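Minutes, methods subgroup
Present: GH (chair), OT, SY

1. OT presented the first of two proteins processed in the latest run. Sequence and structure tokens recorded below as shown on screen.
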Amino acid sequence: MSSVQHITRTGQFLARVSSVESLSPRMRRITLASPEIATQNWSLASDIAVVLAGEDGREVRRRYTVRSVDGDRLVLDAVLHGHGPGSSWAAMIAAGDTVSFFGPRGGIPVADAAWLLALTDESGLPAIAALAQALGDRQLRVLAEIQDRDEVYPLPANASVSWLPRGDQPAGSTAVLEAALDSVEPGPGTGYAYLLGESRAVVALRESLTRFGLSRSDVYAKGYWNLNSRPAR
């Protein structure tokens, strides 16, 4: 009898953890396996909500971006930010464990534009990696804020990335990415930008992108975490 089963018809699943590996000191790759994964329509960089137990024992959910799907296997890359049920789960999960999750939800568009720019912190790196892979030979300019050089993340070869260690700068500030925008030289034609990270930083940086002639409709912006509640990914 299979230990992996579909729970309901509402998008809730049980999956087995087939493997776990460390991509960096603060990023773990978790591969989930379930026959029902192959039956779903997975949009690019869609989300799943993993069901966890909070500190008080009550059910909580933490959303994670789907890095990739291959048949009955789904890959998540989870940031270890040092506290909370999501970080604890990602740090302790092991092959053979069972995971309950809901999904999929949302996704990221592949823009038809002459040049593409992405700004992100660690929380958005899996989505940016999935996007770059979907672009094929098209180039993606990436400004990626990370804690330090140990947190460099594997991106496809068509991503021209500037790794931006924040050092003593607090996570969730706009300072590192804002300064890096001065190095961006947009190409000819229309552009499109992807902006992922702390919610209020995303709002502020979106306004900064107007210097490149990008309107609100030319920017995909998504807040992945809130500074007051800390990252949930």
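2. SY then presented the second protein from the same run.
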Amino acid sequence: MRDLKIRPTAPEDLPAITAIYDHAARTGTATFEIEPPDLSEMTRRYRALIENNSPYFVAVSDGQIAGYAYAGSYRPRPAYRFTVEDSVYLAPEYQRRGIGAALLGELIVQSEKRGYRQMIAVIGDSANAGSIAIHTKAGFEMIGTHPNVGFKFGRWLDTVMMQRALGAGGSALPGD
């Protein structure tokens, strides 16, 4: 990939991130959100992740935001505090160029550095072969499918669950 840089997200990236997510919500099934959030809501979500020390990155190619990725809490209860859920979104013109895999790779590295032990991928639509493939290449294993749990674009959609250990995973206690 020519001129690809992955860096931490900054507030000035949020309009581009909002546009990428808007397109994903309106045209695709990677997210089950039907009404895309506006810039104000995306800013609120960004701040919540940053305040929680969650990794959040953008991929910049030829000076443009090509995509973004972050890892947020998998579930709110304290017992899940070492497990994160990843999210990766790309602008349509930058798909199938290896950018999603690069973002996911950086997200894994930075999540491990923060002491997380498991990463969960909740992939919208079992037909989302691209997302399933990049997660598989990054070491995720299929852990199940929830059939027909979302309804969007006039049809029922599955979610695919994948999981990857981070660092020592479950083979050692946190802090070891």
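Chair's summary of item 2: Residues 58 and 98 are 14 Å apart (CA to CA).
Next meeting: continue with the remaining queue.
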